[in-house]
C-alpha cells in the first residue's frame, strides 16, 4: 500500500524558515517525482514544485522560486520542503503528492497535509 | 497563458445533473484531470486523461473535452457529492513543465 505521511503542524514567526517532511512507503522511492502543493485557508490548490528522487533535480513554480527548496533523502525515502522568509500569506496546508503510473501524470497518492501557520 | 478557469460555484438538486467546466488555452494540447476535495481532506482523483475514471470512482462521474474546455459531469447528484472540485493540467513554459490548477468550483447540493 502506497502511503505518504507528512510531518506535524507548524507555527512559525514571520521571517523564519520551516521545513516539513513527507515519508514515502509502498513503492520504489526513486520511481516517481514527488510534488508539493499549497492550499491557503479557504483557497484553491497551487503547485509549488517537485523533486525527482532519482537524481535530486527540482522544478519550482515561478511564484515560489527563490523562497522554496525541495530535497529528497533516498536513505530514508523522505522528501522535504523548506520555505524561507515566511510571511503571513504563506499560512497554508501543504500537501505532498505523487502519481500512480496507471493513471498518467495525475496526482493520485496524497499526504494528509501539513498546516503551517505564520503569525507573530 | 497558463491559467485554468472554473466557475466559483454550481448548485444542483439531488438526482439532477451537475456540469462543471474548466477552460484554458493549453487544454487542446494537454490532458486534464479532475479532483474532489471535501473539507479537511486531501483531494481525490476523479478523472484522468480528460475522460478516464480510476478504479473505485462511481460511474456517475464522467469527463469530456472540447477544444479549450473540459467538463466534469455528475449524473444523478447525491448529497455526498457536495464538495470542491478542481481541474488540473500541465503546460510547458518552453524550458520546463509546470502543473496548473483551476480555481475550484464549490458544488452545493440543494
Q: What does this protein structure show overall?
A:
The complex is a heterodimer of chains A (120) and B (110). Chain A has strands at residues 3-6, 10-12, 18-25, 34-39, 45-51, 58-60, 68-73, 78-83, 92-98, 109-110, 114-118. In chain A, 0% of the residues lie in helices and 48% in strands. With 120 residues, chain A is an all-beta fold. Chain A has no helices and 11 strands. Chain B is mainly β. The radius of gyration of chain B is 14 Å and the shape is globular. Helices cover 0% and strands 47% of the residues of chain B. The A-B interface holds A 35, 44-47, 50, 59, 61-62, 95, 100, 102-108, 110-113 and B 31, 33, 35, 37, 42-43, 45, 48-49, 52, 54, 84, 86, 88, 90, 93, 96-104.
Q: How many β-strand runs of chain B?
A: 9
Radius of gyration of chain B equals 14 Å
Main β sheet profile of chain B: 6 strands, mixed
**Secondary-structure element series of chain B:** EEEEEEEEE
**Which structural class do the helices and strands of chain B define?**
mainly beta
Largest sheet of chain A: 7 strands, mixed
- What helical percentage do the residues of chain B reach? under 10%
Tell me, rounded to a whole number, the average pLDDT of chain A. 96
Helix content of chain A: under 10%
Strand content of chain A: over 45%
Through-space gap between termini of chain A: 40 Å
Our measurement of the CA-to-CA distance between the termini of chain B, rounded to an integer number of angstroms, reads 35 Å
Amino acid at each position: 500500500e502506497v502511503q505518504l505521511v507528512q510531518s506535524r503542524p507548524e507555527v512559525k514567526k514571520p521571517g523564519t524558515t520551516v521545513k516539513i517532511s513527507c515519508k514515502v512507503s509502498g513503492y520504489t522511492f526513486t520511481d516517481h517525482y514527488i510534488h508539493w502543493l499549497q492550499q491557503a485557508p479557504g483557497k484553491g490548490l497551487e503547485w509549488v514544485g517537485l523533486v525527482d528522487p532519482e537524481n535530486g533535480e527540482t522544478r519550482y513554480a515561478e511564484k515560489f522560486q527563490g523562497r522554496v527548496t525541495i530535497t529528497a533523502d533516498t536513505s530514508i525515502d523522505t522528501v522535504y520542503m523548506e520555505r524561507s522568509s515566511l510571511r503571513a500569506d504563506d499560512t497554508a496546508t501543504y500537501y505532498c503528492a505523487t502519481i500512480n503510473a496507471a493513471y498518467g501524470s495525475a496526482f493520485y497518492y496524497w499526504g494528509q497535509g501539513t498546516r503551517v501557520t505564520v503569525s507573530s | 497563458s497558463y491559467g485554468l478557469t472554473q466557475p466559483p460555484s454550481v448548485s444542483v438538486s439531488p438526482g439532477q445533473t451537475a456540469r462543471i467546466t474548466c477552460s484554458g488555452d493549453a487544454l487542446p494540447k494537454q490532458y486534464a484531470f479532475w479532483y474532489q476535495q471535501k473539507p479537511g481532506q486531501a483531494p481525490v482523483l476523479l478523472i484522468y486523461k480528460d475522460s478516464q475514471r480510476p478504479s473505485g470512482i462511481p460511474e456517475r462521474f464522467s469527463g469530456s473535452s472540447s477544444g479549450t474546455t473540459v467538463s466534469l459531469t455528475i449524473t444523478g447528484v447525491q448529497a455526498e457529492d457536495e464538495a470542491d472540485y478542481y481541474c488540473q493540467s500541465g503546460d510547458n513554459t518552453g524550458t520546463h513543465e509546470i502543473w496548473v490548477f483551476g480555481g475550484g468550483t464549490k458544488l452545493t447540493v440543494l
